[in-house]
Amino acid sequence: GLKGRVFEVSLADLNGGDETQGYRKIKLVTEDVQGYNVITNFHGMDITRDKLCSLIRKWQSLIEAFVDVRTTDGYTLRLFCIGFTKKQSNQQAKSTCYAQAGQIRSIRKKMFDIMTEEASKCDLKELVQKFISMPESIGLEIEKACQSIFPLQNVCIRKVKILRKPKFDLLKLMELHGDSAEDTGAALDKVAAEN
Q1: Cα 123–chain centre separation
Q2: Which of 76, 83, 107, 113 could form a disulfide with 163 if both were Cys (CB 3.0 to 4.6 A apart)?
Q3: What is the rounded distance in angstroms from the CA atom of residue 69 to the CA atom of residue 67?
Q4: Is the pTM of this model over 0.90?
Q5: What average pLDDT does this structure show over 119-148?
Q6: Closest Cα to residue 70, out of 124, 137, 114?
């Protein structure tokens, strides 16, 4: 009955009430039920609407990119990235900071490259760990890489979807849960313990 059910939990709850991460929503899907324990796995990530709306302002360019990547353990994910242009310190007179179409294209290409590189060189567990313990790490890397094209701000992975999973392997899943017992950001294990 519970198999396949998706739970949506705030990252703040998973990280022991750290309210600074309350705007990130993690989706967990039930893979197996063992007695009173529900064994869950990562199913996706999103950010709350109010956080997204608070980032969007006038007089700046919004740049979005999404890319499909395959992790080393066979999961296919779609990562969505969002970023905004930032006023340069030397331009007080101008109220806008719009990037040109060519600049936006090259920023988007950098976003593709960095997201693909970051996600395709690790397995799902390491990637989820990246999203949970250092949610802004990929965003900061994109900001750094695009500094020469146009300064950016508030760059983040807005959403993660799982498109394709490898064949269900209970042993692998239990290994994942066994390892994450002493992990700090053990999102998978904590939700399993709650249910």
Answers
A1: 14
A2: 76
A3: 6
A4: no
A5: 79
A6: 124
